[in-house]
Amino acid sequence: QQHTPYRLRIVVLGAEGVGKSALTVRYLTRRYISEYRRAIDLLYRHTVCLDDVTSEVEILDVSLREKEGVASSHSRWGEGFVVVYSVDDLRSFKEAGVVLEALTRLKAPLEVPAILLANKRDLDHARQVTVEEGQALSLQHGCQFYEVSAAESHVGVTLAFQSLLRETRALHLTA
Ligand code: GDP
Ligand code: MG
């Protein structure tokens, strides 16, 4: 039996308006909150039991944007990263690439547990980024890739966060 729970620090990054807050709240509560605009970074704490292992998870929902895509203080604090763009916003996809590059640089030589999340897949009619482009970017950075919709369902969102938690936890095991 495990006595000391893992403590996992997750940072949610990406351009403004891509749905970082909606995704975070969806994961934590299973509910969809469509208006969650606040210009502050929010830190959430929760305890999860995943694969019979208990972890204390802290999730930082970043609101204040950095020129470089990610603040060095956030990259230092975080162990696992959710990088979000929106399928109807090409600029946000470019920014996701910038964020992933910055993370690789700032965390080097450590491996960076990260997932690339393409949000708002319900807006298929307004799509500016194809699934293939998203996959290609994730392959380039060796991270997992999910297309989800915070608006439509919690299922994909939950799976994506869980896989990041597993990957981040695995880093503890090898440390
Ligand atoms: P943030 O700035 O990245 O935190 O983005 P928010 O979570 O505040 O969401 C920005 C806007 O996108 C809000 O109006 C949300 O209602 C909307 N939104 C978030 N997720 C989705 C989604 O999956 N589909 C659609 N259609 N809209 C979404
Ligand atoms: Mg937000």
What is the helical fraction, as a range of percent?
A: 25-40%
Give the number of DSSP strands.
Answer: 6
The average pLDDT is 92
Q: What are the distinct ligands in this entry? A: guanosine-5'-diphosphate, magnesium ion
* SSE arrangement, N to C: EHEEHEHEHEH
- Report, as a whole number of angstroms, the end-to-end distance: 20 Å
Overall geometry: globular
What kind of sheet is the major sheet? 6 strands, mixed
Sequence of strands across the biggest β-sheet: 2-3-1-4-5-6
Gyration radius, rounded: 15 Å
Report the structural category.
Answer: alpha/beta
Strand content: 25-35%
Give the uncertain stretches in residue-range form.
none
Please count the helical segments: 5
GO molecular function: G protein activity; GTP binding
Keywords: Hydrolase
Catalytic activity: GTP + H2O = GDP + phosphate + H(+)
Family: Belongs to the small GTPase superfamily. Ras family.
Labels describing this entry:
binds magnesium ion; six-stranded mixed β-sheet; alpha/beta; 175 residues; 37% helix
Question: What do you see in this structure?
Answer:
The chain has 175 residues and is of the alpha/beta class. The chain contains 5 helices and 6 strands, in the order βαββαβαβαβα. It has helices spanning 20-29, 72-77, 90-107, 131-140, 155-174; strands at 6-14, 42-50, 53-61, 80-86, 114-119, 144-147. Strands 2-3-1-4-5-6 form a 6-stranded mixed beta sheet, sandwiched between helices. The relative contact order is 0.20. The mean pLDDT is 92. Magnesium ion binds next to α1.
